[in-house]
Amino acid sequence: MAPLKCMEKDYPLIDSHFQSFCASHAIFSFEDFLLYDLHALIASADNHSSSNTLKQGIDQLLSVIDAKLPSLRNGLQLLQDAECNKLLLPTGFQGIDALLGGGLRAGQLTELVGLSSSGKTQACLTSASTVAKQGGSVIYFDTGNSFSPQRIADLVGQTSDYVVDNQAELGPLQRVMERIMCYSVFDIYQMFDMLQQLKINLKSKIVESDHHVQLLIIDSISSLITPILGGRGPQGHALMISAGYLLKKLADDHNIAVMVTNHMVAGEGGTSKPALGESWKSVPHIRLLLSREYDSNVCNISTLKHPSVASGRAAKYTMYL
Amino acid sequence: MEKGGVKAWIDGDETAHDMLRRISAVRSTLLVPPLHRVPLRLGNVVEIVGPSPSAKTLILIQVAISFVLPREWNGVPYGGFDHSVLFLDLDCRFDISRFSQMLTHRIMEGNAIGDCDKTLYDLCMRRFLYARCSNSFEFLQTLKSLHYRLKREKDHGVGVHLLLIDSIGAFHWVDRASVFLSPKETNRKKLFLQSVSEAVVQDIKKLLQEHPMLVIATKSVIFGNTYSTTSNEVNRCSRNVTRNPQQIQYREYMPSVWQSLLIFLIYGAPSILAVLCYT
Fold first, then answer.
1. Rounded CA gap, B88 and B85, in Å?
2. A33, A124, B248, B250: most buried, per Cβ within 10 A?
């Protein structure tokens, strides 16, 4: 909400005469100008005595708009950005990676949906350990105290030679564990605070540059959003959609892959459906459904929504315990 | 009939696949279903509604490809419209690699050799312009500055004749919840959602006057069938679309000012297709 008064010192054409002309049309801020009909304003400026200066003021505001926006990109530039910056991160499960065409893609928001104990948290922990092993930083928002350092150490120790036998060999394992930053988040406002702080840190590059943040995991985002949904007002849904946009913007601007988990609720006819409702469906880029056969290590994963893969395509993977 | 004539007549001239390929190369119409059922002209505004996921963005991508391809290239007919396309991504979910895949496939299909001509591919990719907005103010800013940007594009090369918006109801909840504080509170009878929608519609109308183009917008259904409580803030009407014995209820949530801009509305669900016409 930038009042026009404050813009005067940077843009001298927006002087007090122009401001009083705008005030006569109930335009007091930049946002008011955006909502007003531009042609009606120009027509009214024409009828005014000092129409030239007023029109120059209007042009000045339009050039401010033009300068603020990024220029239009064409398909080749987008593709080049996608190929150079938006890399694929393997999750550590061959089945999931095969389904996703290589792994989680930086710049995209992937959602894992599943019933309780279907392996969502295990998938998150495994992805975190895989990415950390390969040198990237991971930020883990844990909403239900389900993050387990012992499990991460087990996973890291399984597929490489970071064996924790004696204190002297703790070095490599410790370095991997240090790349995973875990935060406990218990309500959505705290999550917004932390995401804004992360945005500021990334923008000013406070984090050391040899370990880029590559993965952001929120386990589970539905436990943060469900308490505020419901009720008659739109505020809950608005917060949910804003959280989605904030995550997608972070992912796109800083080339991070974001992974969130969601639980399931009762749907029509006794089946289960993902929580968070219809509006949430258009937020993630990719939605995957996890399920686990009873008392078995084999998990099924199928796509609910993916830009390139038909929904319903399934794969199996085995969890190592 | 002659001896071999009966058999030849039964065998037919060509398969349906060959015929489709021949027609789509020769006749430049929007053969992309479901748009092939509606007569479209520059200046029309079409809305494609459907639950998520129902391939709405895929329809937009296919239309975009049929617009950026030239009518013919190196002797090979592609049947495109030879224009530039602008894609406004309000959902911030567009995947350029999907577009690239489909374009490559289309070029290879039309080519007799079956390979992808790099020059043609680059030309088409360059004609696809993209912008993303993450809130209503950015959307309004983009629309207001579009007039000058489109003029610049036209001076450089081909003009933009297709505007794709994905999806128009993206900021609905955020706008509904916004309390827009203004010093002159008493003058503000209208709600923020109403003001934003009116501003968007006005900008699009003015844009269409200067640059005639076809506007196609997608919208996802955000109120399921079991939504019971309704607030009186937004002018809403529920439509019953009947097709065969099944009855689908789809609740309109965009303000009536947007409805007045539309020419056609296409409702797509996984198995149902209906076209509602506005006059």
1. 10
2. A124
Name the band, by pLDDT with cuts 50, 70 and 90, for residue B246: very low
Report the pLDDT averaged over residues B161-168.
Answer: 90
Which residues from chain A sit within 8 angstroms of residue B220, using beta carbons? Answer: 278, 281-282
Instruction: Answer with the residue of higher pLDDT: A294 or A248.
Output: A248
Q: Note whether B105 contacts A: Cβ–Cβ < 8 A.
A: no
How many angstroms separate the CA of residue B148 from the nearest CA in chain A?
A: 9
Where b means 16+ CB within 10 Å and e means fewer, A72-90 reads bbbbbbbbeebeeebbebb
ipTM of the modeled complex:
0.88
Q: Does B231 touch chain A (CB under 8 A)?
A: yes
Average pLDDT over residues A162-171: 56
Q: Considering only CB atoms, which chain B residues are within 8 Å of A305?
A: 52-53
Token match 């396309």: residue? B85
- Per-residue pLDDT tens over the stretch A188-247: 999 999 999 999 988 887 555 557 899 999 998 999 999 998 877 888 999 999 999 999
Q: Which of residues 115-134 of B touch A (CB under 8 A)?
A: 122, 124-131, 134
Cα nearest neighbour of A287 on chain B: B53
Residue A267 has pLDDT above 70, yes or no: yes
Q: Which of B141, B195, B206 sits opposite A39 (nearest CB)?
A: B206
More confident site: B31 or B38: B38
Cross-strand bridge partners of residue B216: B46, B164
pLDDT (0 to 100) of residue B33: 65
What is the pLDDT averaged over residues A293-316? 83
Chain B residue with Cα closest to A39? B206
Mapped to the 3 state alphabet, what secondary structure does chain B carry? CCCCHHHHHHHCCCCHHHHHHHHHHHCCCCCCCCHHHCCCCCCCEEEEEECCCCCHHHHHHHHHHHHHCCCEECCEECCCCCCEEEEEECCCCCCHHHHHHHHHHHHHHHCCCCCCCHHHHHHHHHHEEEEECCCHHHHHHHHHHHHHHHHHHHHHCCCEEEEEEECCCCCHHHHHHCCCCCCCHHHCCCCHHHHHHHHHHHHHHHHHHHCCCEEEEEEECCCCCCCCCCCCCCCCCEEEEEECCEEEEEECCCCHHHHCCCCEEEEECCCCEEEEECC
* Predicted local confidence at residue B232, as pLDDT: 32
Q: B141, A232: Cβ pair inside 8 Å?
A: no
Average pLDDT of chain B is 76
Interface of B with A in 141-180 (CB under 8 A): 141-142, 144-145, 148-149, 153, 167, 170-171, 173-174, 176-178, 180
So what's the pLDDT on residue B131? 93
pLDDT of B218 > 60? The answer is yes
Name which of B128, B141, B153, B225 to mutate to probe chain A: the one with the most chain A Cβ atoms within 10 A of its Cβ.
B141
- Rounded Cα gap, residues A229 and A235, in angstroms: 8
CA distance A236 to chain B (A): 9
- Return the number of CB contacts < 8 Å for A and B: 145
pLDDT score of B249: 55
Residue B25 pLDDT > 70: no
User: Could you tell me the two tokens for A188?
Assistant: 């959505």
Q: How many residues does chain A have?
A: 321
